[in-house]
Amino acid sequence: MEDTVPTRYWHALDRDRVQCDLCPRACAMGEGQRGLCFVRQNIGGEVMLTTWGRSSGFCIDPIEKKPLAHFYPGTPVLSFGTAGCNLTCHFCQNWDISKSRQMDRLAEHATPEVIADAAVRHGCRSVAYTYNDPVVFHEYAIDTARACAERGVRSVAVTAGYVSAAPREEFYRHMDAVNVDLKAFSEDFYRRLCASQLGVVKDTLRYIARETDVWLEITTLLIPGENDSPAEIEAMTRWIAEELGTGIPLHFTAFHPDYRMIDIPATTASTLRRARTIALGNGLRYVYTGNVRDEDGQSTRCHSCGALLIGRDWYALTAWGLDASGRCAACGTACAGRFDPQPGTWGARRMPVRLH
């Protein structure tokens, strides 16, 4: 299997160097050099993706773990990632994969067709490009999404949204749902802790919400003392309501000490609940808490009558109050999302799989 394939978004700078145009970093690379993401490399005067067909492993998860609360609840999703990332987040919770410089971690080889066939064989409604950011394996993700679409399998991207305009447009033509990690709502946070720019992520969110049919949810990992102030939550949730819409589900999840931020305490449940209250007060209809036990904060209620639409305990569904058309069974109000007439029954299981 060929691990190294040509990419499309780059241009020559001079006789010896090329520039990658996939994301705003615009990495300039001499012969043999790699970009910050580590997986895109100048080989023979072209930018090549060095991880096509190679994965850090495959696992069947509940779709709620991505997290997606309004995209075929209760169904299994086949999840995989590669190596590398185009951000430098000090708090990365998947740093052993996303920050990996060891290509031998990529022990699983699979073509897009093998992945799509495995999803069908295991009864997965969708495939998720996750663990590290699919922006950096753009070509592999799109090839896999095409193969999945031919077999009736949906594609889900879990991403930080740090991508340039042209590849962004191509990427989302092939996605059915996305969870964008909105890491904070200040440029200082993005610059200092991620070496990136909030404005780019806001552009990506606007693009998805306004110009595509892709189902969108947002996650913010609340880090004590960094991005959890009431003022910042107030500004962020007002922006989401005004710029993206009140029906966009928002997930506040708890930080745990990891990678380069092991001296920061874990986020308390009360901090998550406070953020949720602020967001609901600013008109967002679906706001969730994550990485803590909080059945009320993880369940979906009708924004019109308050009836319980989807009960959740962690990743397991405990109640279903939607009719066959995705409306509240009590009052008939539509719930935003993508729903089957009946929920899936996968539950909270996590099942690693080998594709060969």
Describe this protein's structure:
With about 350 residues, the chain is of the alpha/beta class. It has two domains: about 5-50, no CATH class; about 55-355, Aldolase class I (TIM Barrel, Alpha-Beta Barrel). It contains nine helices and 20 strands. It has helices at about 95-100, 110-120, 140-150, 165-170, 185-195, 200-210, 230-245, 270-280, 295-300; strands at about 5, 10, 15-20, 30, 40-45, 45-50, 55, 60, 75-80, 110, 125-130, 155-160, 175-180, 215-220, 250-255, 285-290, 300, 310-315, 315-320, 350-355. The protein has a nine-stranded mixed beta sheet with strand order 16-15-14-13-12-11-9-8-20. A three-stranded antiparallel beta sheet has the order 1-6-5, with no helix packed on it. Strands 2-3-4 form a three-stranded antiparallel beta sheet, with no helix packed on it. Strand 15, helix 8 and strand 16 form a beta-alpha-beta unit. Helix 2 (about 110-120) crosses helix 3 (about 140-150) and helix 7 (about 230-245) crosses helix 8. The longest helix has 15 residues, at about 230-245. The chain is globular and about 65 Å long. The chain starts with a strand and ends with a strand. About 45% of the residues are buried. Residues about 100-105 have low confidence and may be disordered.
